[in-house]
Prior knowledge:
Helix content: 10-25%
Radius of gyration: 22 Å
Largest sheet: 4 strands, mixed
Low-confidence stretches: none
CATH superfamily: Immunoglobulins
Mean pLDDT: 86
CATH class: Mainly Beta
CATH topology: Immunoglobulin-like
Amino acid sequence: xxxxxxxxxxxxxxxxxxxxxxxxxxxxxxxxxxxxxxxxxxxxxxxxxxxxxxxxxxxxxxxxxxxxxxxxxxxxxxxxxxxxxxxxxxxxxxxxxxxxxxxxxxxxxxxxxxxxxxxxxxxxxxxxxxxxxxxxxx
Length: 138
């Protein structure tokens, strides 16, 4: 009985290992990305806790990132901090602040930046590292 249990346990562990390796996905099948970081400002001041999105004009997977307290961000498309796909992108920025009541949120930047169809921001991501300066105005 003990050899059968040991064989069953070994077989189960091997099966779990094979499933885990098979579910990892093929990283080599992912398109090449370009490292992209930058800073977002509004009226010359950093925009903290903003969500930045780059939507490829070709309709491929967008890149996203979140700014820190100094307005600095790094973008991710497939894996953490891997950047964005090369090419032209429509850019959106969303940043909200709590109201004094703490119940609702209010945009801390002009709302035009929140939608790809109304945002005037466009960037081209080229080969090599990209450092973006997103300067928002009224």
